[in-house]
Amino acid sequence: MRFQQNVDLGPLTTFRTRGAVAQQFYWIESERDAREFATAVVPSVSEWLLLGGGSNVLPTRTIEVAACMQLPGRRVVEEGPDAVTVRLGAGERWHACVQWAVSQGWAGIEAMALIPGTVGAAPIQNIGAYGQQLSDVCQWVEGIEIPSGELRTLPADECRFGYRDSIFKHELASTFIITAVAIRLVKRQEATVAYPELARALDGIARPTISDVFECVVRLRKRKLPPPDVGSAGSFFKNPIVPVQVATSLAERYPSMPQFPFNGAIKLSAGWLIEQCGFKGVRRGDVGVYDRHALVLVNWGAAQGTDVVRLAAEIKDAVRARFGIELEEEVIIV
Ligand code: EPU
Fold first, then answer.
1. Are 95 and 31 found together in one domain?
2. Which is deepest, 11, 90, 258, 323, by most CB within 10 Å?
3. Is the per-residue pLDDT at 219 higher than 90?
């Protein structure tokens, strides 16, 4: 397994903040590397961090051991007249897999275009966008157990997928290294569009195809989210989910507050709450809130991880004071 010492973690994350170093750094390029990391490296250290594309993590300090998952592979493992199951290596770029699926005429992930990061990170936070989420298509997740090194396959119904949540953030957070994800896609050109903003953007097209959806999502995301040369990790907070009674009393006080029914409760828009508190476009040194989307914190240059954490705390305090709502980070802070 490739190994380096004292690696700056900033350039390996999409936030590209300063101030975090891994004393030992490993590159996982094969299942054998993953097994070696799980059995020989992890058990002897007190803490470790596994990066994929580094798009949902904010390292803020020195850490003993980190690794980057780079295991490749895209393979059809089952094919029927109407659907295919594909097995994707954890190190594959998610967006490249979406592009590939769309080019093959396989529907199911086209609305998740341009989500940064890797396949291996996708089940951890159950990525989603524009009405689709990984758990809708996931069949199973493969990984190596720590410390035994055994290969284990978890069927999707054992992954405890929730909104930006899964078993990999909890029970299996420090005992499982995801090596592959299998998803089932449907052979169909015609798209189903569930998300209102996407439906509006596709308004001129009578029967949108999955390519139309893919291209439209790419356009929408490029318009709202920072370009790749600006450090960020996409949505910094989750959208809060509150009981219906809480949402009703908030709607009385704030009639323009966006609210979306969600599994018998109400999902609020964190971006709206943050914007109402006056943070959209603010800048504290090199850290800021993106001026086109208040849910996105950005590193305008030389921000430290701790600077981002400080602004995030300021935002949480303001939202709590004004709305009585506790924002929870989507990004994993180390
Ligand atoms: N809004 C504002 N001000 C803002 C931003 C948003 O008022 O600055 C309000 C608007 O009312 C808008 C609503 O928030 O209608 C929802 O905004 P948007 O459609 O942009 O979606 P979001 O809830 O902010 C979520 C995901 C995104 C995903 C989009 C589209 C979370 C935490 N984020 O954002 O995912 O792309 O929906 O499906 O669920 C990510 O997770 O990193 C991510 C980018």
1. no
2. 90
3. yes
**CA distance linking residue 216 with residue 201, whole number of Å:** 7
Q: Whole-angstrom Cα distance, residue 248 to residue 253?
A: 9
Q: Is the pLDDT of residue 33 over 90?
A: yes
Q: What is the pLDDT of residues 71-86, one digit of tens each?
A: 999 999 999 999 999 9
- Indicate the SS3 state at residue 132: strand
77 Cα–ligand 1 center, Å? 34
Tokens representing 225 are 């989210």
Q: For residue 70, what are its two tokens?
A: 């780079």
Question: What is the average pLDDT value for the chain, to the nearest integer?
Answer: 96
Same domain, 262 and 327: yes
Name the phi and psi angles at 284, rounded to 5.
Answer: -120, 95
| Of 110, 272, 279, best ligand 1 pocket probe by most atoms within 8 Å of the beta carbon | 272
Ligand 1 atom at minimum distance from 234 CA: 42
pLDDT in the model for residue 144: 98
pLDDT at 204 (0 to 100): 85
From atom 19 of ligand 1, which residue's Cα is the shortest distance away? 197
Q: What is the CATH number of the domain that holds 318?
A: 3.90.78.10
Average pLDDT over residues 311-323: 98
Query: What pLDDT is attached to residue 27?
Result: 97
Last residue of a domain, one of 170, 193, 223: 223
Q: 155 is written with which tokens?
A: 């069927």
Q: Does one domain contain both 208 and 267?
A: no
Q: Which amino acid is at 166?
A: S
